[in-house]
Amino acid sequence: MVRLLREKGITDERVLSAMERVPRHLFIDDAFENLAYEDNAIPIGAGQTISQPSTVAYQSQLLDVSHSMKVLEIGTGSGYQTAVLCEMKAQVFTIERQKVLFDRTRHMLTQMHYHPRCFLGNGYQGLTEANFGLFDRVLITCGAPCIPNDLLKQMKIGGIMVIPVGESKKQTMLRITKTREGGYETERFGDFKFVPMLQDINFHS
Ligand code: SAH
Fold first, then answer.
1. Which pTM does this prediction carry?
2. How far apart are CA 5 and CA 171, in angstroms?
3. pLDDT band at residue 63 under the 50/70/90 scheme
4. Cα–Cα distance measured from residue 115 to residue 172, given in angstroms and rounded to the nearest whole number
5. Interhelix angle for 13-21 vs 53-63, to 10°?
6. What residues contact 94, with CB distance under 8 A and at least 6 apart?
7. 119 alpha carbon to ligand 1 midpoint, in Å?
8. Is residue 204 pLDDT above 80, yes or no?
9. Can you tell me the distance from the alpha carbon of 75 to that of 141, in angstroms, rounded to the nearest whole number?
């Protein structure tokens, strides 16, 4: 898989070696196990998908994560991207709105000896500064109709957000750097297709 990622233009060795260490087949249902190391998005239940490896690698590379950085991920899903960030030695905070996925993934990550802080909540609101401080990096792994203002506020100066923004059919990958309080620089990186970022928490399905 790592060879495939190199062919697709991923050059960040921190990302490649993290992805080499995370066993992707453990994050998907047995029925799809033979597809685990191919470049596919795969259903993970509750109508959601694990992002395809090249997308995980691409977002992780844009995020430019170094050791000990505080990273906020929106959309825990299967936990695969979370595990990649943990392997990159980030301090990971991750939010999921679907209770079934939140419960299952938190349990599994712990069993695999990954220790992110997992939250059941609405990613649009992020985590309050009073309780969690500001973040170096914010990664959104679902398609956002707009850039959530609360998440911009929860970034440090010099912080980076990677977010796919657009209507449901396709989104443009944006990298937003916070240059000063209220000041942002935005770069665009092509079109992607993510499951939608939804507004409220789902405690049931
Ligand atoms: N990072 C995940 C991607 C899963 S798909 C992985 O590697 O598997 C995106 C996830 O975002 C889904 O699990 C979906 O339930 C979740 N999601 C959608 N809207 C959300 C919101 N507002 N807050 C938190 N999570 C959300």
1. 0.97
2. 21
3. very high
4. 31
5. 140
6. 72, 73, 74, 76, 79, 82, 116, 117, 118, 119
7. 12
8. no
9. 5
Tell me the CA distances in angstroms from 86 to 42, 110, 162, 180, one per residue in order.
21, 12, 17, 28
Q: How confident is the prediction for the chain on average, in pLDDT?
A: 96
Q: 52-78 b/e with 16+ CB inside 10 Å = b?
A: bbbbbbbbbbbbbbeeebbbbbbbbbb
Of 32, 114, 125, 195, which is best to mutate to test ligand 1, by the most ligand atoms within 8 angstroms of its C-beta?
Answer: 195
Residue 126 pLDDT: 98
Separation of CA 19 from chain center:
14
Query: Looking at the annotation, which residues are catalytic?
Result: 51
Three-state secondary structure call for residue 115: coil
Per the DSSP assignment, residues forming a β-bridge with 121 are none
* Cα(94) to centroid(ligand 1), Å: 10
pLDDT value at residue 205: 57
- Confirm if 44 and 56 have CB atoms less than 8 A apart: no
Q: Is residue 39 scored above 60 in pLDDT?
A: yes
